[in-house]
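Here is one chain, start to finish.
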Amino acid sequence: MGTVIFLPQSVLIVSNRQKNKQSVFTRMAVIKALEKIKEEDFRKQFSCPPNSPETKCEVQDIQCLHSPLYVAGRYNKYSRTLPQTPWVIDGERKMESSVEELISEHLLAVSRAGGLNFSSSGREDVDVRTLGNGRPFAIELLNPHRATFTKEEIKNLQQTINKSSDKIKVRDLQIVTREAMVHMKEGEEGKTKCYNALIWTEKAIQTSDIEFINNIKEFKIDQKTPLRVLHRRPLAVRPRVIHTMRAEFLDEHHFRLYLKTQAGTYIKEFVHGDFGRTKPNLCNLMSTVTDILELDVESVDVDWPPAIED
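Its structure:
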């Protein structure tokens, strides 16, 4: 059953739709617009109570759409040349595929959906691997022509996805409700994530030069929006906490750094300092120039979606 809402022409609803959606009036956009209208302005456009209509409604078009289907799981990313979502800059595609596409192409095929929305618990850079139990994700399949699947069919679909590419792997694939998807995002900044980084130092080091790192606990830093994401994130200073660190000596210019941090911490910027935009940083701690050569996400500590036995 649909809802019909009439708005005065003075109300403009601008909806920045994602790549898989058309620019349309949505229920949520209308509700938000109505909340912003002052009562006196509304009464200028409409009488209260409303006048009886003088003309009959005429049906111009009827569309029948199936309610969305929600699919969730966890993914591992093993490639350092694979973005999480399609990477398009100024209309030009930069990478041939993405995590989103490698997963969703199979979901679209079996559900015959008209589009999709992909979301996840954070995101990794194109050159970062996601290991361990993987990163939670959810996909909203829009207007699916098939919306009912057995557990065995979902299990087979997961196997199909995993056989299709060696760049990713999916686990715990399952049908979820829209309400359940909030678990992936709620309290996100209070969650923790673990990383493994390969560090280079300009100054030659010995094991004794990095041992102090193992004793650092609950280390507070301030991160101004990194230069590399400033085009898509607002300028702000975000306080973050690095809960623990552990250093493993490799040679006189390299060591492994294992970190457990507050979700949302920019690891690369903590290592190289981002021209002083992250304070304090590893360069400050070690009194030398440091940089990051490789980064892996070891775990994303979000207890969702529920694990599924193989």
